[in-house]
Structure formats: structure tokens, C-alpha cells
Amino acid sequence: MKHPPVTLFVALGAIVLGACGSGMNERDLYLGQRPPGTEPEIFAPGVVSTKDYEHSPAVFSPDLKTVYWTLEKQDPTQGIIMSSAFRDGAWTEPVATSFGAEFTNDTPYITADGKTMFFCSKRPREGKELGWHLWTTTREGDDWSEPQPLEFQEDLPFSGYLTIADDGVVVFSGRGLDEDDARDVFTARFEDGRCTKPVRLPVVNSEYIDGYPNISRDGSFLIFESNRPGGLGGLDLYSSTRNEDGSWTEPRNLGSPLNSPGDDRYGQLSPDGKYLFFGSDRGGNMDVYWVSAQVFEAP
After folding, report:
1. Distance between start and end Cα atoms, the chain
2. Where are the alpha helices (DSSP H) in the chain?
3. N or C: which end of the chain has fewer CB within 10 A?
4. Could you write out the DSSP letters of every residue in 44-55?
């Protein structure tokens, strides 16, 4: 299955940040889990992947020493961003992040410098209910700051799962003012600390659901989910590559074994470029899966 350019993984592989030289052995990486091959496997069963619905991939900090994911409890439904950190030679028990376990939060994303997290939340702003909107928090020592909403969302009744490339190009899930609109992939750019007015990403979107996009750090490659016709069933993972002129190629289904007859969602590469993390209910419950990035290079 030849989809993403091999140069993408060479570039991402260069991001390795010396975790093994800062108190971690290779066997400690990724919660001590045995690395997968080119067949997807459930990630950290009983720790990250549980009987609950995991509403995000496993999202690691750039130094690979902290992992975040969303556990979605039922009755009532509430998304909680969980975390585990490597400390004193071991991974800590999962705990809810400090910035608002009383609210519904999900789909965290960590910037390349590890200092900022974007996430989606239903928390109110100044007493006003906003629905699903994007929020940001910054690293303050061992904790996170009070979250703040991003400011470009007035015309979007739904926005979530933002990721950002090194050149400032942003992609996220959104929906316009028409409630009958399907979810689409939007793009914008961070300039001088602010985000430009977002627009729907041409070529990538269809009349069906298109969302939860993840752009590579170098901005050359995009993974997103869609239920457009021609897939293997439910939501599938698709890819698109950015051309030199900034346009995007026609999306391609990433095929089996990444996709299954169920829903396959939230695709995100690890900081070292070695693994793809994603959500799938192929086993009967939405869990976090991971697979070697070599799967992209397989015939």
C-alpha cells in the first residue's frame, strides 16, 4: 500500500528527542508495550484501551515521556482527557488532567515544542454555552494553564481536533452555520499568535463526513476520517499529500489492514514517526490501536 511519501517518515524520524538518554530505556517507551508490526494492535489494553469508549488516539509529548488520551464515560456521557507520565523509572497510574474534569473534553493535540495543547471541549465561556469548540492551554511547570478558547470560531457552531504544521498551517474539524452540513476539514494559518479566518479545505472534502484531520509536522501530508462511498465500512482513514503550490491531492483510502468494516478514526503519527495511533471499534469497542509506520510503505 504505497500512499504517504517515504520522505515524510524520514523527516519525522529525525524528531527523535533522546528520550532514552533522559532516564528511559528503549523498553520503557510507549508505556512499555511491545512494538507492533504492520498489523494494527490494541494499544496498552486495560490502561489506555479500556471497556470505555476512547475518543482520541494516544497522543505523546515530544520527549515521549507523557501520553494523553480521551476516555468517554457513559450515563451521563462525559469525555475526560487522561494522562500518564514516566517518572522515577515507571509509568504513573492514569489520571484526569487538571484543567477541568467537570467538563466534557476530548481529542488532545500537543505542539512540536511540547508547550501547548489544543483540545475540544463543551465547557462554557463566561457562563455562555458554546457547544463543541476548540480550546488551548499552555505548559506551566508540571501542570497546564487555565484553558482559553480560540478566537476564530464565531461562525462555526462546531469545531474540534485541531493540528498544526511547523509552518503554521492549521487543519481541524468543523461545520458551518447550516446544521444540515456534514462535518468538513477546515484550514487556516497561525500568524503572530492568532489564527486567520478558516476556510474549507478544497479537494479533501466531500458531501459526506470528513473530519478529525491530522497534518504532519512538515505540512506535507494529511490523514483524516471519512464515510464517503468506496470505503471498507463505517468511517475509514484517508490520506492526502500537499503539493508544492499548496494544493492537495485527491484523497486516497488507506485500505486494509488500517481500515476495517467498522469505524477507524483519529489517525495520528507518533512524535518519532515510527507508529500510527488511531481509534477503531473493529473489536466491538472503540479502542486505541497502533501500527508500525512501515505499513505505509508495504506493497
Report:
1. 5
2. 6-13
3. C
4. SBTTTB-SSEE-
Sign of the alpha-carbon dihedral angle for 217, 247, 153, 210: negative
**Residue 259, number of CB atoms within 10 A of its CB:** 24
CA 73 to chain centre: 19
The domains of the chain, with CATH numbers, are 6-297 (2.120.10.30)
- pLDDT one-digit tens code per residue, 38-92: 999 999 999 999 999 999 999 999 999 999 999 988 767 788 999 999 999 999 9
- pTM exceeds cut of 0.85: yes
Q: Which of 167, 187, 296, 181 is nearest to 248 (CA)?
A: 187
Cβ partners under 8 Å of residue 71, min gap 6:
50, 52, 53, 54, 55, 79, 80, 82
How many helices (H) and strands (E) in the chain? Answer: 1, 24
